[in-house]
Each structure stands twice: as structure tokens, then as C-alpha cells.
Description:
mainly alpha, Lysozyme
Amino acid sequence: MRKREKTVYIIAIALVTAIFAVSIPPELSFEHAVEEDSLAVEMPDPVFRISPYDSIFRIYADTVGWDWKMLAAVAYVESKFDTSAVSAVGAQGLMQIMPQTARAMGIPKGMEHDPEESVRAAAEYFAYLSQLFRRVPSSERINFVLASYNAGFGHVQDAMRLADKYGKNRYVWNDNVESYLRLKNDSVYYTDSLCRNGRFAGTETILFVRRVQHKYGEYRLREEMFALEHQTFERLTNNED
């Protein structure tokens, strides 16, 4: 590999690393370091990595039929990949599962902080919710599942009924069902006979869905840049040959 090509390659790697390093806790970053004072080029890591639990996300993504990076995005938003996390309302572990849900999903007592048990249970619960929302188009369904994971199925169902009543599409999340989930905090709406689950402050749930989708989009972009990095390395290596 010529000296100038090595320099260009290293600069490209440094730029990719700088773009995404700020969004990943240093202790969880799997980006390889680039030595500023050296032109030595090492073979990049052949596997795209997000967290120490990627292999678990990859295994259980098939349970719900999602991209494994979506499970990783949920874990990041829920716990920042901290398996010891416990929320103010009692949600526990990597995927922040409530005790009642943990029991329903078969997590053995005392195993709530086990990462594989947490991801397995979350994936099975996502699959269950996805089945409940089977009438929602697949392109929209994940938003409804995420919202129900955070708020509970009943509140999202109330918002769907209200959206339908007021002329919105009950099968579209953005600016439709999400709007009425927020309005469930208003007595005009939560006292409506269509609201069978009472008052609910939906802002946190709406933000949860947006944050997960944003983080997932970030992970997809990082994976694309990772693939580009490898393509560049292979091209430069082949040119050297």
C-alpha cells in the first residue's frame, strides 16, 4: 500500500470514529484506535459492534423478526447497557422489564439482571405485542409495539380509539395515535367512554419511541460506515497487491 493511500485511509477512519464516538460511552466503544503519529494500518475488526451484548441481541432478534440493532437501541435507551439498572418504578435489568412482565415472560426470580434473560423476555414480549397489533401495517407496527412496551397496551389502544373518533388514522403513529396518547392527560379525553384505561401522561412514551427510533437510525448509519471502511481497506489492500 503506498504511503499516500495509507494516509488517506487513516484520515477516513479517524473521521468516521470522531463522528460516532461522542454517542457511545467510552467503556462500551468498540471503535479501534487510530495512532496519529503512525502510518501503520491494521486489519479492521471484521464484526460490527455496538455493545458487549450484541451476540444476545442477534440471537433473540429472530424471536420478534426485528433487526438486532433495534433491540440494541431499546437497551441503550432503557438502561445505557447497564445490566444492574433499576428504575424509580421498579423496572430492572438491561431491558428494564417490570417485575410483573418478568414473571409473565418466565424470567426466574433472581435472574432479572441477567442480560440474556432480559433480552429473551423482552423479545418474546415484543413478539406478543406485535401479534396484538397485527392489523397495523408492518411499516407502522414497531412504533405501536415500542409505545406499548413503555406505556402498556391498554393506553395505546385507548389512543387508537380516540384517533379514530376524531378522524385520524388509528393505524398511523406519528401525528395520529401519538397525538391522542398525549391528550389522554386531558380530562376531555380521558373521561371519554372510549378511554377504558383512564388518565395517562403520554409525553414520556412518545419521547421513548422517538429516542429508540433515533438511536436505531444512528446504529444503521454506523453499520453502513463500518461496511464502507472495510470496502475501502480491501480496495487499498488489493491495489497494493
